[in-house]
Design brief:
The protein has helices at about 55-65, 75-80, 95, 105-110, and strands at about 15-20, 20-25, 30-35, 40, 45-50, 65-70, 85, 100, 115, 125, 130-140, 150-160, 165, 170, 180, 185. By secondary structure, it is mostly beta strands. It starts with 14 loop residues before the first strand and ends in a 12-residue tail after the last strand. Bound molecules: flavin mononucleotide. Flavin mononucleotide binds near residues 34, 38, 83, 87 and 181. InterPro entries: Flavin_Rdtase-like_dom, Flavoredoxin, Split_barrel_FMN-bd. Belongs to the flavoredoxin family.
Length: about 200
Amino acid sequence: MNQKIKDIQPSILYYGTPVILLSTLNEDGSTNLSPLSSSWALGDCIVLGVSTGGKAFENMQRQKQCVINVPDPSLWRHVEKLASFTGKQPVPEEKKRLGFKYLKEKFAASGLTPAASHSVNPDRITECPIQVEAEAANIRIPEHSPFFAVIETKVLHVHAHERIIKGENHIDPEKWSPLIYNFRHYFGLGSELGKTFRA
Ligand SMILES: Cc1cc2nc3c(=O)[nH]c(=O)nc-3n(C[C@H](O)[C@H](O)[C@H](O)COP(=O)(O)O)c2cc1C
């Protein structure tokens, strides 16, 4: 393929990862919800990229538990309802400059429904087809950037909507589809292209 290539300096590099809604526990026992797109999963480890200026980071440092709720494309408007808010008060200057406002009642604002978790204190989100209860095993701030933390979590408990389960312990990729954050725009997946030899 003869493709012309150009050097660029993009202001963001969000090249298309699933959206998650991270539940963390506030000081008063209520649950904060934070939309994130920086995560990856391998075995029972899910690694999160979390801004150090937000409430999710503050809560994880103090309480070290979370639920990684994974919405499907039908829930994008609910996610977006949370996008301009932070659970942090006072709102940090940088967030204020970007137009963020303080909001504590994230469930009410998003129109999503809380459900008690089994192994952790923050609530799960009923409407999210995959809900992963986890604990922080390691929280690290990279030397080259104080603005976000790499949080390694250990999975404790996985819940899934019955309609996306195949057999006993598998998610059916024909029935499940993540919500993708693609350079600040929401997308669903296209149709299947094929499968790997281990599928
Ligand atoms: C779809 C989407 C994806 C986002 N991804 C991330 C992310 O990966 N990491 C992060 O720190 N913030 C991310 N943000 C920004 C946070 O949601 C935002 O900072 C929010 O105020 C966090 O809420 P909190 O301060 O109550 O934790 C994302 C926002 C949206 C809407």
